[in-house]
Amino acid sequence: MSDRLTLATSAGLPFLTLAFHATAGTVALASGCIALATRKGGTWHRRSGQVFVVAMIAMGLTAVGISLYEGKKAFASGALAAYFVFTAWTTVRPLGAVGRRADIGLVLLACVLAAGGFSQAFTAFGRPGHQIEGVPAGMHFFLSTVILLAAVGDVRAIRAGGLQGTRRLARHLWRMCFALFIATGSFVAQLVRMTFMPAWMRSLTVILVFAAGPLVVLLYWMWRVRLRHNLRGLTTARPIEARRAA
Fold first, then answer.
1. How is residue 95 annotated by DSSP?
2. What tens digit of pLDDT does each residue of 138-157 get?
3. What angle do CA 25, 32, 238 make, to 5 degrees?
4. C-alpha–C-alpha distance, residues 18 and 7, integer Å
5. pLDDT per residue over 69-87, tens digit each?
6. Is pLDDT above 70 for 8?
7. Exposed / middle / buried, residue 199 (Cβ in 10 Å: 0-12, 13-18, 19+)
8. Are the CB atoms for 75 and 132 separated by under 8 Å?
9. What angle do CA 236, 218, 108 make, to 5 degrees?
């Protein structure tokens, strides 16, 4: 098993990969926060959202490579982040002719990630401390359940030939928020190890904001868009008649 990869101890391709991963993660956090804070559907939201998608996919895929290089058993979180952000993006920007085949492939990927996650969850539960490489069994169960529900949603969308109205908008919003939750969770995990950072940056308040903030925003948007059908202040490429949406 390889030692943990760090910028201070690595060189060559591992160093470049880690530096690229860290840069992509920083850009993803910044652009994701901008997309979260700006008017949905507006210019700033669209542009920052596009940057967020590219940065998250880059961060996720390099995270998988780094985890495999380090010999970690829990290496799928990067692929999970890329899956959520990509399916959120294709919800509002369909892929066209290859879309259905890509959607089926993504369903299979989600099922594999969910099965692997549940397997790791049960393995972690049977270990001392109920964790694997610092990740508790409860988090494995939580992420695996979410990805399984996402896969079910993918199947329903494929069978329906696509989503319309508030269902389409809600799918985009919750997947983007959950992808940001994965990114901020990864940042928090690194932040607690950064003893050189100012004390206020490592305070409980900052950690809670980064760790739980995206989930709080996710719940807000699901309540507003999916349950209340309230689209006030949102700009969409195609008009949505909220009350008629399924």
1. -
2. 888 999 999 999 999 999 98
3. 140
4. 7
5. 877 766 778 889 999 999 9
6. no
7. exposed
8. no
9. 85
